[in-house]
Amino acid sequence: MKPFFSTENFKEFLRKEYFEPEVARALWVTTALVVPLVIGYQNGSTGAGVFAGITAQLLTSARIKGTYASRALMLALATLAVTATAFAGTLAGEYPGAAFIFMALVAFVASMARGIGVYGQVFGITSVFLFLISLHAPIPFRKLCTGAYSF
User: Fold this and answer.
1) Cα separation of 115 and 119, whole Å?
2) pLDDT tens track for 121-139
3) For a disulfide at 127, which of 13, 22, 85, 122, Cβ 3.0-4.6 Å?
4) What is the CA radius of gyration of the chain?
5) Same domain, yes or no, for 53 and 31?
6) DSSP letter at 61?
């Protein structure tokens, strides 16, 4: 058995990292999580920072392959889906009946999104997760509409 910290293992790691960079991808996903957290903390709205950080981390963790046009279309659709589910969660947060109906609809669409491949499954899970988080929004929708919340 060869030792864990050998030159052969290091060369193999560098070869794998050159052809399929995992460390760079991990740094990218970590940055997507940390930057909104820091900005939210600095602005005094940690709830919004956590919400944005989790969203960014989940969306950047998807490994999308294909042409630039297909990747751009997939990310645009995922962004629309995540935005719509977060908005629906914020609206339904104060009403359990509406939350139940929207959750059933979001879960159904997310399970159907698996049909478009691995991306659909990742974005479907992200949408469901963000719907559940947004049921208790950082800024209550009623306060936002009445102007009682100051930015």
Assistant:
1) 9
2) 778 888 888 888 888 765 6
3) 85
4) 19
5) yes
6) T
